[in-house]
Amino acid sequence: MNFKEKYPEFFPQDKYVEISTEEGWDGLLDQLFTSLRTEKADLHVLQIKQKFGQLRFYYGVMNVSDRAHALIDLAERDSSRICEVCGEQGQRVTNKNGWIKTLCEKHAQDAGFLKM
Ligand SMILES: [Zn+2]
């Protein structure tokens, strides 16, 4: 999903913003951006990525309500139960290199990840 096009108010026009999460979290992010728009949150995204199997949503703040902060925290927590590849229910898994991701059973198996 092209979040920069859909929610341009949250992205600086003059800076490259890295979004490196996979498609399975698009629904979660879309919901988050919709809520932030409803909240009229005045923030700009710095980077969106996955770390230790969880969404990391880095942002700079101009004027953001406590509720908007809470929505971001909640999305980050919810991501650890959603497969990053397909969006189905997932759990945190690890591989032999010690990488941690959140994946459903099928995608964990496909990628050689095991339950923690
Ligand atoms: Zn999956």
**β-strand amount:** 25-35%
Question: Based on helices, strands and strand pairing, what is the structural class?
Answer: alpha+beta
Radius of gyration: 15 Å
Portion in helices: 25-40%
Using the alpha-carbon principal axes, give the shape.
elongated
In N-to-C order, the SSE pattern is HEHEEHEEHE
Kindly state the mean pLDDT as a whole number?
95
Low-confidence stretches: none
Bound molecules: zinc ion
Q: Could you give the distance between the termini? A: 30 Å
Strand order of the largest sheet: 1-2-3
Q: Write down the oligomeric state.
A: single chain
Number of helical segments with 4 or more residues: 4
Please report the total strand number as a whole number: 6
Largest sheet, described in full?
Answer: 3 strands, mixed
Please give the domain count: 1
Structure report:
With about 120 residues, the chain is an alpha+beta fold. The chain has one domain. Helix content is about 30%, strand content about 30%. It is built from four helices and six strands. The chain has a three-stranded mixed beta sheet. The protein has a three-stranded antiparallel beta sheet with strand order 5-4-6. Helix 2 links the parallel strand 1 and strand 2. Helix 2 runs antiparallel to helix 3. The longest helix has 13 residues. The protein starts with a helix and ends with a strand. Zinc ion binds next to helix 4.
